[in-house]
Amino acid sequence: MKKAIINQTECVACGACEKVCPRKAITIFHGIYADVNKDLCVGCKKCEKVCPASVIQVVQKEVVS
Ligand code: SF4
Ligand code: SF4
User: Fold this and answer.
1) What domains does the chain contain, in order, with CATH numbers?
2) 40: Cβ below 6 Å to ligand 2?
């Protein structure tokens, strides 16, 4: 299973990923950065494709801490 990871220091909190996620796995934490609920994420890559800052990567779960 793949999971999305977000470079939160580069995230501009635009909310695009939150809107597109079919699993509602992403929330904008305190309006500052996006956070992924890895239990909900199914690795569909929709968030990765829409992120204007290119700070989302979908990777194999084994490398997600
Ligand atoms: S990979 Fe898919 S399920 Fe996971 S956070 Fe991104 S949009 Fe949501
Ligand atoms: S789409 Fe990218 S820049 Fe926008 S909130 Fe999500 S991770 Fe941050």
Assistant:
1) 2-63 (3.30.70.20)
2) no
